[in-house]
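Help!! Second protein's tokens look totally different from the first
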Amino acid sequence: MKKTYVIDTNVLIQAPYALQCFEDNDLVIPLVVVEELDGLKKAEGDKGANARAVVRQLEAYRQQGDLLEGIQLELGGILRIEKNFVNVELPPDLPEDKNDNRILKVCAGLQEKQKDTTIILVTKDLVLRLKAQMMEIRAEDFMTEQITPDDAGYTGRCEVYIPEEQVKDFKKKGVPLQEVYQLDENGKNCEVTLNENEFIVLRADQSNRKTLLGRVSGKKIIPLTYKKSKPYGISPRNLGQYFMQEALMTDAEEAPLVIIKGVAGTAKTFYSLAVGMEKVYNNPNGEYRRIVICRPNAQFDDDIGFLPGDEKEKIAPLMRPVIDNLEQILDSDESKRYEDECERSVLAMDAVKRL
């Protein structure tokens, strides 16, 4: 059966390319959606930019013909703007002056008029989908812009299983890549593709308590080299920090670029500074001679010119997280860490100058 999708405003604002994502099915844009797009054209940020992008698309279609009658899309469907069904009755509890309810009117009217067509409301609004269900209107979320697990970004870590007999020799010899495996949806063994320098959590296939940490090197997985290191006196406290320490401490020729990502509070800045200071001050090989710290000023783009003081004073707020972390690293005595804030700040600022 042919399908007709009624598109809500939030779908177009979330994904301006949405009109090209419905294959050869027909698309209907209620007139109230066009009005909402018009009201969002001057909004700041992505919302306004996406609204303007959709309006430009509609203008391009308008130049091809009458949008009220319908315009042929590239994939074979028909796109049209629907201005009718303003007199369709809604349940008494749904006020007719709300934009969401006006969209429901269009859906209900299309269902009554096109009984041989499946009418589907596409919206990101959960409440609107609930209202649609109450009116026996089929409603769906727009899923095209959502990332599936297969398309998710590279995490830098992987969990695999190894034979029980490989556990004892892992610390001395490592384990060949062909010996590790994962389990599929049916619980059967399947091969796993691993990348160079990817971190691995190895679990013994006969015992859940035996867990090892390793890194891909060539054609085998080797133990972490810097697992017991304490850069500038800092010790890792969780799995992610063990891997972060290993990546940062690894020689630059072997790992020339390290990218760390994680939510706030996972010690990204803290650990980077600790390892950097360890490499600069405590490394007898002289591998590095200085640290360069760069931070984006995106949050100050609109008002940095109005901040008082000279250039250094304007940039000081951007460096505050770095200073705070340096104070934590340089003052290892937690009981006295906050006794003399002035002295700690001077010490940290002096460290920044030397870096």
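Here's the second one for comparison:
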Amino acid sequence: MITFIKDSIRELKHVVWPTREETKKYFAIVLVVLVIFWIYLFIAWSLFSNLLIALDNLF
């Protein structure tokens, strides 16, 4: 277990961390993708819901 922790710490020293500007850019990209995905799911859910209501009214 101690060897694992030492190896993990050694590997973390090799990590290249993103700059503040890169982090802001990636955060904005993630937010935009989440909003687009939410809009897609909302439209799909609304259409499916309306379809089920229409089918229920048919019978």
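Reply: Different proteins will give different token patterns, so don't panic. The chain has a mean pLDDT of 95.
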